Amino acid sequence: MTQQKYGLLMNQLRRTGWFLRTGNQELWTRSSSIFLESSCSSSAGLVLQSQSTDVHQNLALEDWIDAHVDLQQRSILLLWRNRPAVVIGRHQNPWSECNLPAMRRAGIPLARRRSGGGTVYHDLGNLNLTFFASTKAYDRQRNLKVVTEALRGLRPDLDIRATERFDILMNGCFKISGTASRLSRKSSYHHCTLLHSADPVALSTLLRPSSPGIHSNATPSISSPVANLTDHAPSLQWEELLEALVQQYNKEFGLCATSILIDPSDESLFPGVGRMAAELCSWEWTFGKTPKFSIETQLELTDKHLDLCCSAHLLMEVKNGLVDRCQLDVPTDWLPPNLSVQISEVLVGERFCPHRAAAAVTVLLRSQSGQLHRRMHLLCDAVLSVIG
Amino acid sequence: MAVCVLLRSFSSNFSTVLPLLTRSASRCPLQLAPKPYFGRTVASANTLVTLKFTDKHEWIRVEDDGVGTVGISNFAQEALGDVVYCGLPEVGTQLAQQDEFGALESVKAASELYSPLTGEVVEVNTLLADNPGLVNKSCYKDGWLMKMTIANPAELDSLMDEPAYERYIRSIEE
Fold first, then answer.
1. Where N6-lipoyllysine occurs, residue numbers (chain B) (predicted)?
2. For chain A, which domains are there?
3. Under an 8 A CB cutoff, do A222 and B17 touch?
4. ipTM score here?
5. Which of B77, B105, B107 is the mutation pick for testing A, counting most A CBs within 10 A?
6. What is this structure's pTM?
7. CA spacing 20 to 30 A to B90: which of A78, A193, A374, B78?
8. A219 touches chain B (CB under 8 A)
9. Beta A85-88 vs A120-122: how paired, if at all?
10. Is B122 within 8 Å of B91 (Cβ atoms)?
């Protein structure tokens, strides 16, 4: 679709009352549309394809559509993919779900989505599909049928099946898709991944705990063996897959929508989307929303200078991503208790983050020298490595 | 909270992963299918305390001390499926009527919770941290979500009483 036609479409969508406006913004009236209410029921459904590969922008777009589009009589399919990122579910603990130090080294961001479910790795070889509908029309099995039927049509020799847990398995045992959803006031969205040609090494390396000894009631991920569609169907092209999915969506829901490319960072089309993306990027949302948890572990400390080692016990409680409590039990002949207490005290109230913790202890370390300094340093390093 | 009318599919895999959720004899027969009688009125020692309902299927019960206890209805917990996590607010949070105050995650979806009234959160049900299934097993009693002050009692008039809520449920299901 040309830019001009696209602009025309978006204006028509506004005029027909596709969008709900609240507050002091412009009130769009629900007048009948000349463009959309044609003999073909295209006004009942829309297929959108995001031009962005930024995970936060795409998640913000989902939020925007959920908040602003009237989905009572209509449905939307959104197709999107991201540059490498790890995405955790609404109530998950990133320290137990993924390897944060490895992600930092590789420059791979973490995002927390608003839907439930488990942790997934995204890259350009993974397709995300979001099915928007009214809360009444929420039907995950039906949505997944769009995917399974499309794949069966493309490659009949592949055994593709949706499970009771709303995963999609290929050839009986390989997970190629996982599902999560969100139910809001009147609308719902159900999104799922689809592994076309993602990087399996990155996936398995990054989806591992950062820290040992975490006790939490956060929703856990259920780990499954995965495979890419291209592992078993090497000739399947990305564009071919997208086309088949759009066709099957139209068939399943009785629509004739063509895929429209959109830019989720465009504030003129999606006013307020930038603010939504900023919120999703924030530390308060990404880490601060982690359910309360504790970490308990043994620290092995070796003073190489004197060839002496000992074992210390660490217990930390983290609430809203901040260290709420810290207890260090270190043998008193290795380090005077007042010093290990000082380390604990300086960490309480800080973000559970190795950079913040390192900054906090640096000040403390300056006040010591010689053997005490060396041992405090060792202890601090050990604590920081637990923080991940 | 937001509720889906269709498809109450239960994922059996979840109960093997999360041992706190059990599916057998503990399920109350009321939960098998929505019925007109919800057992909503709770008799306390001297007074009959009634529940008011929102159109998002939260209930609020005004206690003797004027504090409101908030939870979700039987209709809602049935439609949600097994609750696996309760995201509740901090004590002290100020809420306006219809503000989102948290979310429940179930096998079905993450679902927002909306405050029935304006007030301040004074207590949250800490039992739900280790036993989120209480919301399913005992939605009017042990599975309460939070307690709040009632800043504007007139707002109670905007909520549905039991017969009105029953009629509302029936109209949704048609």
1. 108
2. 3-286 (3.30.930.10), 293-386 (3.30.390.50)
3. yes
4. 0.76
5. B105
6. 0.82
7. B78
8. yes
9. antiparallel
10. yes
